[in-house]
Amino acid sequence: MAKHPLHPHWRLLTLNCHEAWIHQLESLACPLDIIDGLPNRLVTSWDYRIRPLPKNGRLITLSQAHATPGGYDCIIAHSIQDMMDVKEIPGARILVIHNRMESRVQSATVSQSIPEVQSILKNYLALVGGSVVAVSTAKGGSWGFSECDVVEFGTNVDHYPPWRGTIAAGLRIANQIEQKKAILLWEFHQAAFADIPLTIVGVNPTIPNARPSKDWADLKETLAAHRFYIHTAHPELEDGYNMATVEAMAAGLPILGNCHPTSPIEHGKSGFLSDDPQALNQYARMLLQDQALAERLGQQARSRVVELFSLPRFAAGFKKAIEKAMHATPAG
Predict the structure, then answer these.
(1) Can you tell me the distance from the alpha carbon of 169 to that of 188, in angstroms, rounded to the nearest whole number?
(2) Which domains does the chain have, with CATH numbers?
(3) In whole angstroms, how far apart are CA 282 and each of 64, 165, 256, 286?
(4) Residue ranges of E strands in the chain
(5) From its phi and psi, is residue 37 left (phi > 0), alpha (psi between -120 and 50) or beta?
(6) DSSP string, 285-313
(7) Which of 13, 61, 82, 242 could lock onto 72 through a cystine, CB 3.0 to 4.6 A?
(8) How many other C-beta atoms can be found within 10 angstroms of the C-beta atom of residue 63?
């Protein structure tokens, strides 16, 4: 694949939040400092089970980031708390929106209404001069940033071993499912796949036999071995895909899930979509019985990733977002 010209002289700072997403920043080929070990966070230290450190990245403390001479060309934050933690560090700022506002309200205790939260965020960003990048159009719009830059996930299909599909079972990758049941349409998932062989990868203490991957290599082998992948999501709370879905497509797995306006899956070509759990159950049984069918659909899913979610496309989009943020930030 041709490389997009980038700027290796840029010095970037981010905060550990979402290892799989942060790992994409390796494609920018810029020195990357990652603040790790902050208290009172869902992610307190880099989880090597999800991804290795980016080749251009290093873990540092917040104190070390504050002590960096001259600050950074661009600081990539993932929450208002992040923005507050780095408010004294010089540099352009980007806030990345990873979740729908509705899902944050649904899964947390929030005293303000959605319009109030949107207003608070916009006022704070105006105060600190931050730009906004959303991982999808729907997620940006849900926070009131319908005109923000959208940079979708990127992956490289060459990073994944050839699909085998020798394990006649479905696969789902998700952490903390118990806290996300509404977002993941978990009751629908269970109705469709309760009697289907299924492997769940992730941190889920309440689900028997669920386990996190040992590392990224182990995760890729798990993807290569399974017959199909499952993604179900409430259309008002989550997109019709996430990073795990894109990764499964890159690994050559067909995708099964509910109908969703933002799903990248073409029904009958790269997987099967239905709002009828019995129909999805039958599609799952078809794939369990017909490995060749699963392979054909999975190859179409892989081609779809190359078309929609390439790593060079992510790198080019985020490069433009950094340039825009730097242009909007007064020098010095």
Answers:
(1) 18
(2) 12-154+310-328 (3.40.50.2000), 159-308 (3.40.50.2000)
(3) 55, 18, 11, 6
(4) 12-15, 32-35, 57-60, 74-77, 92-97, 131-134, 149-150, 167-173, 198-201, 226-230, 255-257, 271-273
(5) left
(6) HHHHH-HHHHHHHHHHHHHHHHHH-BHHH
(7) 13
(8) 8
Strand pairing class (271-273; 149-150): unpaired
Q: 232 in helix, strand or coil?
A: coil
The tens digit of pLDDT for each residue in 245-272 reads: 999 999 999 999 999 999 999 999 999 9
The answer to whether 229 touches 263, Cβ cutoff 8 Å, is no
Distance between CA 269 and CA 193 in Å, rounded?
A: 21
User: String of b and e for 73-100 (b: at least 16 CB within 10 Å)?
Assistant: bbbbbbbeebbebbeebebbbbbbbbbb
Region 187-210: mean pLDDT is 96
Cα–Cα distance, 329 to 332 (Å, whole number): 9
Cα separation, 117 vs 306, whole angstroms: 36
User: pLDDT: is 298 or 329 the higher one?
Assistant: 298
Angle among Cα 271, 104, 137 to the nearest 5 degrees reads 55
**What average pLDDT does range 22-30 have in this prediction?**
96
Residues 6+ apart with CB under 8 A from 241: 231, 262, 263, 264, 265
Q: Dihedrals φ, ψ of 116, to 5°? A: -65, -45
Length of the chain: 332
In tens, the pLDDT along 88-142 reads: 999 999 999 999 988 776 655 556 677 887 888 888 888 777 899 999 999 999 9
| DSSP-assigned letter for residue 52 | P
CA separation for the pair 7, 108 (Å, rounded): 39
Helix (H/G/I), strand (E/B), else coil: 202: coil
Q: Is 219 helix (H, G, I), strand (E, B) or coil?
A: helix
